Amino acid sequence: MPTTATRSHGRTLRFSSGLLGGLVDLGGLVLPVSCPGCGAYDEVVCAQCLVLISGPPWRCEAAAGRLDRMDGRPILPVWTLAPYTGPMRELVVAWKDRGRADVGGRFEAALDRGMRHLVPALLGGTTPDGLLVVPAPSSAAARRRRGDDVGARLARAAARGCSTEGLRAVAASVLVRRGRGRDQVGLGARARSRNLAGHVVVRRHSAAAVRGRTVLLLDDVLTTGATLAACEQALMLAGAVVIGALTIAATPSPGGTAGRVEVGADAV
Ligand SMILES: [Zn+2]
Asked: What is the mean pLDDT of residues 93-107?
């Protein structure tokens, strides 16, 4: 928490971006911050906004039209921590697009906690060698904006929560975007599917590691489901079994948060 003295440093140094950059590198504590969700001063994410991601995950796949499977299997179960609206949307946008990497730590803690609630639902569908938590791969543009490791950090947090509850899990960044797939931001449902179809693949050197494994996908926001569907397809082609996905937030269906189902042992 910044002190009065450090706030005055923040004001004094606001005009020197080079020096500010150095101070941020020294620990990120000397700059005054505000909660992106509501503007509360001196909080990375305030207590009120943290509540939005503090509950157990709930099922949200009913609102994602692109998750329908063509082979008659039931739709992929997707759990999420919050509807992608209001302050929650502001938190995600600040983290993804406005340089607020510090918000990511709060998301990681929430995924760690959330995964603990999911373990009873996942146990029945998991092979004895445990679960691979696989992050959806970022586009090249997103990697340039946020660095390479963002999805991997979220996946590691979820795997930690899972292992804490006795279901062995490891994060595995085995998926990659290939070719001309562009950033999904600003694309509609059909364009997202076209953009991703065939452009998400398992890394060549990871193919043996995923064969026969059970996988939980991890992504930041569920929108149309096109990203998760492409990830599932790539993993299936490599011989893995995707048993579900977890996201930080999900775009509500037009009727609101319809389809919300609490975690239950019959969820997989
Ligand atoms: Zn707030």
From this structure: 94
